[in-house]
């Protein structure tokens, strides 16, 4: 009797697994809301010049420059 339920269970699991691929994800932030997030008041730093200098001093002291990413060439050869 248990073997009769196995194909039904397998088909239900296959349908549930396939249905996850059919949904489309919408962005959490709509395009018309992005200007609010790009506002300077939403910045994590109150004073970006002071934060840049502090970051430079920490990099020089720790000897770890460029750990937070940086701009490079588009070809990937840098």
Compact description:
It is built from 3 helices and no strands. With 78 residues, the protein is mainly alpha-helical.
Key attributes of the depicted protein:
mainly alpha, 78 residues
Order of helices and strands, N to C?
A: HHH
Task: State mean pLDDT (0 to 100 scale).
Answer: 74
Low-pLDDT segments, ≥5 res: none
Report the β-strand fraction as a percent range. under 5%
Envelope shape: elongated
Biggest sheet record? none
Instruction: Tell me roughly what share of residues is in helical segments.
Output: 40-55%
- The count of strands amounts to 0
Structural class based on helices, strands and sheet pairing: mainly alpha
Terminal residue distance: 65 Å
> How many helix segments?
3
Radius of gyration: 26 Å
Describe this structure in words.
- It is a single chain.
- By secondary structure, this protein is mainly alpha-helical.
- The model has no long low-confidence stretch (mean pLDDT 74).
- 51% of the residues lie in helices and 0% in strands.
Write the SSE topology.
Layout: H1 2-22, H2 34-37, H3 48-62
């Amino acid at each position: 009797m248990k073997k009769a339920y196995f194909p039904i269970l397998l088909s239900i699991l296959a349908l549930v697994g396939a249905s996850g691929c059919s949904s489309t994800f919408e962005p959490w932030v709509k395009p018309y809301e992005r200007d609010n997030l790009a506002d300077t008041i939403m910045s994590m730093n109150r004073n970006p010049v002071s934060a840049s200098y502090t970051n430079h001093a920490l990099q020089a002291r720790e000897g770890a420059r460029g750990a937070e990413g940086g701009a490079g060439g588009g070809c990937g050869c840098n």
